[in-house]
Write a structure and sequence with these properties.
The complex is a heterodimer of chains A (254) and B (388).
Chain A (H helix, E strand, L loop, with lengths): L5 E12 L2 E12 L3 E6 L5 H8 L7 E6 L2 E2 L5 H8 L2 E4 L11 H13 L3 H14 L15 H12 L6 E5 L7 H18 L2 E5 L3 H7 L2 E6 L4 E5 L2 H7 L3 H7 L8
Parallel strand pairs in A: 3-8, 3-9, 6-7, 7-8
Antiparallel strand pairs in A: 1-2, 1-4, 4-5, 9-10
Helix pairs in contact in A: 3-4, 3-5, 4-5
Chain B lengths: L18 E7 L3 E9 L10 H10 L3 E11 L2 H17 L3 E5 L2 H11 L15 H34 L7 H11 L4 H25 L6 H39 L2 H8 L3 H40 L3 H11 L2 H27 L5 H33 L2
Parallel strand pairs in B: 2-3, 3-4
Antiparallel strand pairs in B: 1-2
Helix pairs in contact in B: 1-2, 4-9, 5-9, 6-7, 6-9, 7-9, 7-10, 7-11, 7-12, 9-10, 9-11, 11-12
Classes of the chains: A alpha/beta (254), B alpha/beta (388).
Chain lengths: 254, 388
């Protein structure tokens, strides 16, 4: 296990709706610098768990601590202090439809970044260029394809250089080359800006390419069935559920 | 399981103040020196100082010196990008090799040409072209309106003849939404309208000693005009907007496209139940509103004018005729049809964004109100000509 500081500590977390438990007894840590992958089949509760880690939903029990501060039981000020460190890419992109791409990315920079307007605009354009949308700044989200919307949403997620980046299905709807470019960007952000990434994805190639640690959750047992580096899990695990998900034929993905 | 970890306060690598200074080097080089921790949200120097210096000093070259940077993020990238623009505009070479390796990688990535070229923004059209475009839009909107009416008539015809895709449970659900769930707000508005009408009437009629005719004023006013009109206004704001928002959201989530691919007309499955429900329910709501309005007026009359409840009731019954009641109900049915059609039409024609759905709801309410008022005026003329 890495010696890096713990960014997120999840302790005995139970999540669900009313009396229905989606996942129970979850305990794991995300360490600084990880690309932490939440893996699991459709409907296993991956996205719900991600929303819990971001504080968008209340758990039924347990605790989530970000750098020692409780997201679950903290004061509103503490929760704000925690969430200001986040950048989030939602599954649907969630771009603000009444704003151009540039305005979408500029809004957090201007409102929270403290940069002068000229620098904020330059930075917004640079972030869009990083995701391959140079020249598209003046367009509205409705004028873009789904994949381009996803990339613009990623530019907004990294607008303030967050310390923690949450990505919900970043590759969904993208062609393989674009998906690889997004993977490269995630790795580059991690290297350059020391970002810790928590990612929910189905894309096996992405999981094996960029994941440094992770958990596999299982809908049937409603719990974590495996944890660790996805590549090592694929090579070493004898659990049928792990091999079923990661396709454990001993070969590395490209 | 929970491991001790540093707190968020301890997380930043360095807390030294970010600074930007300009130094002149040999060969007329301008050195832009960055030092300290450059962090967004913590505040950084304005890069305009460096950009202005490039313009004013016209140096031979510009050198970015970041050796004393203790922490950096996008704020440094923004500075480097602005300097690059300023230097490129004047043909001055920029040496940014002194930036952290990670920053150089990100800048290189951002400068790669995109795989696709964005469409250029459309040039602003001239006045004549804009007027022409607006006239054509208006023409298309009118044609679209007529097409919707045609579709609706055909859909209602198929539904009535039992050949449509309209589902019985949808009609019943809409009847409940339009009817029972609207009773609260209809009660409040109708009661107040009746009471206000009686109050104004009492003040004016008292001058002529004709207070007793307050019952006539309230009875005829509410039953013939205001009951249906105010109920239609309430329903346009409540239900018409809801129709537009619901159908608009269905367009956003491609539910309407799913129907189209199956060959099921949205006018039959979605619009017809709403139009039928509101056309049937608005007259019933109006009858209820008439009673509540008359009751509200009665409370004022009895309270203010010392009129007995029996006298108020007798006067009202004497004044209100079957023609008033029938006319009011016929108007209500037409108002219901107009409000429902406006809500559904704008919902179906909504754009595919959250803002567009909001706009569709607004347009539905405005169209509904305007059409109801126009119909009210038309009814007034027709009834006058008929001597009713």
């Amino acid at each position: 296990m890495s010696d890096a500081p713990v960014e997120i500590a999840v302790d005995n977390l139970t999540i669900g709706y009313g009396s229905y438990v989606v996942l129970g007894g979850l305990s794991f840590e995300v360490r600084h610098g990880d690309v932490f992958v939440i893996m699991g089949g459709s409907g296993s509760g991956k996205s719900t768990l991600l929303r819990q880690l971001m504080g968008l939903e209340e758990p039924l029990g347990g605790d989530i601590r970000h750098r020692g501060l409780s997201l679950t039981h903290g004061t509103p000020e503490e929760r704000l202090q925690i969430t200001r460190r986040f950048g989030v890419l939602f599954q649907s992109g969630a771009l603000w439809s009444s704003m151009t791409l540039e305005e979408n990315v500029m809004l957090p920079i201007v409102e929270l970044g403290g940069l002068p307007a000229g620098d904020a605009r330059t930075l917004a354009r640079l972030k869009l260029a990083l995701v391959g949308l140079k020249g598209f700044e003046h367009l509205y989200p409705s004028e873009l394809s789904g994949g381009m919307q996803k990339r613009a949403a990623l530019a907004r997620a990294i607008a303030l250089d967050p310390q923690l980046l949450f990505l919900d299905e970043p590759s969904a709807g993208l062609d393989p080359p674009t998906s690889r470019r997004i993977d490269d960007l995630i790795l580059e952000l991690r290297e350059s800006l020391d970002v810790t990434v928590v990612i929910v994805t189905h894309e096996l190639s992405s999981i094996l390419r960029i994941g440094t640690s992770g958990i596999l959750i299982d809908a049937a047992s409603r719990s974590i069935v495996a944890r660790g580096n996805p590549r090592e899990l694929r090579r070493q695990s004898h659990d049928a559920r792990v091999l079923d998900f990661l396709g454990g034929d001993g070969k590395e993905a490209a | 399981m929970v491991t001790q970890s540093p707190t968020i306060e301890a997380a930043p690598a360095a807390a030294s103040r970010p600074t930007l200074s300009l130094e002149s080097g040999p060969d007329r080089a301008l050195h832009v020196v960055l030092a300290g921790a450059w962090r967004l949200q913590a505040g950084v120097p304005d890069s305009s100082t460096a950009v202005r210096a490039v313009a004013e000093r016209s140096p031979q070259r510009v050198v970015l010196d970041a050796a004393a940077l203790s922490a950096w993020d996008g704020s440094v990238l923004a500075l480097a990008a602005r300097l690059a623009e300023a230097c490129a505009a004047r043909g001055i070479p920029l040496d940014r090799s002194g930036l952290p390796t990670g920053a150089l990688h990100l800048l290189d990535r951002a400068e790669r040409p995109p795989e696709r070229v964005a469409p250029a923004p459309a040039p602003r059209a001239g006045l004549v072209a804009r007027i022409g475009a607006r006239a054509m839009r208006a023409g298309r909107a009118a044609a679209d309106y007529l097409a919707f009416i045609g579709d609706l008539v055909l859909a209602l015809g198929r539904v009535v003849s039992g050949r449509g895709y309209t589902r019985r449970q949808d009609v019943l659900l809409q009847l409940q939404i339009c009817g029972a769930q609207s009773l609260g707000i209809v009660t409040l508005v109708s009661f107040l309208v009746g009471a206000i009408l009686a109050f104004v009437g009492a003040v004016e009629l008292r001058v002529f000693g004709a207070e007793i005719y307050v019952a006539n004023l309230v009875g005829v006013g509410v039953v013939r005009e205001l009951g249906a009109l105010m109920t239609a206004f309430v329903i346009a704001g409540r239900t018409g907007a809801a129709f537009a928002a619901e159908l608009g959201s269905m367009r956003v989530s491609q539910e309407l496209d799913a129907l189209a691919t199956l060959g099921i007309p949205a006018t039959e499955l979605l619009v017809a139940p709403r139009v039928l429900a509101l056309t049937l329910m608005l007259p019933l709501l109006t009858v209820y509103a008439d009673f509540v309005g008359v009751f509200g007026g009665g409370l004022v009359a009895v309270g203010m004018l010392d009129m007995s409840p029996q006298l108020y009731a007798a006067q009202t019954i004497g004044a209100v005729t079957a023609v008033h009641l029938g006319g009011g109900l016929a108007k209500a049915a037409v108002y219901g049809l107009l409000v429902a059609a406006a809500g559904c039409r704008h919902g179906l024609r909504s754009g595919k964004s959250a803002a567009a759905v909001g706009e569709a709801a607004t347009r539905a309410v405005v169209s509904g109100l305007v059409e109801v008022i126009a119909a009210c005026g038309l009814f007034a003329v027709i009834f006058f000509e008929l001597g009713w």
